[in-house]
Amino acid sequence: MSLKRVQRLMTKAGIRSIIQQKYRPYSSKCKVEERDNLLNRDFSTTTINEKWVADITYIHTLRDGWCYLASVLDLHSKKIVGYSFSRTMTTDLVIHALDNAYETQNPKEGLIIHTDLGSQYTSEEFSNIVLSRGMKQSFSQKGCPYDNACIESFHAILKKEEVHRVRYLDYNSAKMALFQYIEGWYNRKRIHSSIGYRTPQEVEYSIRHVA
Predict the structure, then answer these.
(1) What is the pLDDT of residues 13-27, one digit of tens each?
(2) Whole-angstrom Cα distance, residue 84 to residue 63?
């Protein structure tokens, strides 16, 4: 059966494809300023709360369109230590994710927080929050996704195991599903070969309760 005939039959029956439109970010004409890359693709750690990586990904909903998830991952435990979900991709989104991580983990000064060069992360407001918490800000080089590969890997896993398997009705249903996946599954039940086939929560617990 030809594609055109399928389209005619679908139109006649009043049905349409449910495949969601791929998100296409708007291109920016603003020149991106290179900033210090303290991480420099050194993802090694000795304990938790030494190096965090952060990024934003896009989640589609039927009623509310595109929504945005900002995540913060600890490179040692692979745990999502902070996240925030919003209908808008603003600086507040990434600040709330960082605040969530900071309040949960209570890290010592000197922690490196690594991100891409997105306007939310390079904003003065976000940088001031980082400095006030005693953290060091690190940035990927322009056009180098490998610099932040670990958090991008988490978002790819999230899409494969959760997001692409369902269709969210609206923002609230997506928010609940993401909470259940991150807190109920990824952090506490999903084992990772890179941390000895343990869960992120097990790794963190073993460090915080070491004799």
Answers:
(1) 665 544 444 545 544
(2) 20
